[in-house]
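Table S2 (text version). Query chain:
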Amino acid sequence: MHKGSCLCGKVRYEVSGDIDEVSMCHCKQCQKAQGSAFAAVAPVRSADFRITQGAEYLKEYRATPNKARVFCLECGSPLYSARDDRPEMKRLRLGTLDTRILADKRYHAWVSSKAEWFDLADELPRFPEFAR
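Corresponding structure-token output:
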């Protein structure tokens, strides 16, 4: 069981399934949404994800019509994204986890859009666009 929360603690969630994949997405939308060089995300099954507190503080924003970015209305912490055409999955923002994960599959995606001021200093796989 994994647990997480937003910065202010008003929203809390649980993930009952495994988190075994981590992608660092360097696309421009993730840079803007995170206010950083990339977003560290993991796919989780929607059936394994549950808001345990503060659902009334959830707000979504759609930079593209098919994808909702969900965040805390109070503190602005990005929590997950969800695509309309893949309702069975969410992409969890890993910085909101309160429990540790040990993911075997880790990689960088959209490195073609990488921030010029950030250097990749690891040997993880790199994909110019979305990792397939």
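Notes on Table S2: Strands lie at 2-5, 12-15, 21-25, 39-45, 49-53, 58-64, 67-72, 78-83, 89-93, 105-109. The CA atoms of residues 37 and 76 lie 18 Å apart.
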